């Protein structure tokens, strides 16, 4: 199933239409997309029956311009760096290095087709698979990790590379948390809908030029391993997000370096999920 935020309301995507969760559940579930994670199992069970039973004439148009972040207000956002071998190499890390863990502050999370203001001429791009947590996960084993996943979506981890590296120690979280620096969407896809949840192709284009290609099977730490590693330290809460890392091809590693410019479009696609596009303008 696919869950989205349409004009701020939780919906189930049914083809090119939208089933409003609050209205069609007769108020059993509220309209807030973030609140669904507190009773995720019940929501999924209800939605499975509702989407096949509802009259298509009773569904709303799925207007792409009204879509927001499918997980709009996560309490915690975990982000993983250098989690693909080729990206580790271009970033100057050993291929067997432990992935860097940091956060993107939740205020940076936005939805698809967002216009991001560029605070400088040093903003970089990264396509990522983003995982949403379904239920509290604490000290979860990798073998049991997927059962704690509500769904996955596409993310673009935007980074201001100067601020990120200011000082004697990197400031990853600050440099990656400007307003709009966490585009996600277009919707959240439950793992059962994926062709192979452990091997999805990622593609990223900048104004039509392919800049990144990879597969999630190339991760150094897989989704279950990341959940095991993170939950061993921090309880993962319903509706939390994990940005799982990016393949090679970022602008900061190019010669010469290439950064995002006003009026450019960053288009990211992941098999089984869809396409996420972000536009840019000068601040």
Automatic annotation (TrEMBL):
Natural source organism: Galbitalea soli
Superkingdom classification of source: Bacteria
Keyword Cytoplasm on entry: no
Name used for this protein in its record: Fumarylacetoacetate hydrolase family protein
Keyword Ubl conjugation: no
Database matches in InterPro entries: FAH, Fumarylacetoacetase-like_C, Fumarylacetoacetase_C_sf
Family indicated by similarity: Belongs to the FAH family.
GO molecular function: hydrolase activity; metal ion binding
GO biological process: small molecule metabolic process
Keywords: Hydrolase, Metal-binding
Organism lineage: Bacteria, Bacillati, Actinomycetota, Actinomycetes, Micrococcales
Sequence ranges assigned to domain Fumarylacetoacetase-like C-terminal in this UniProt record: 77-280
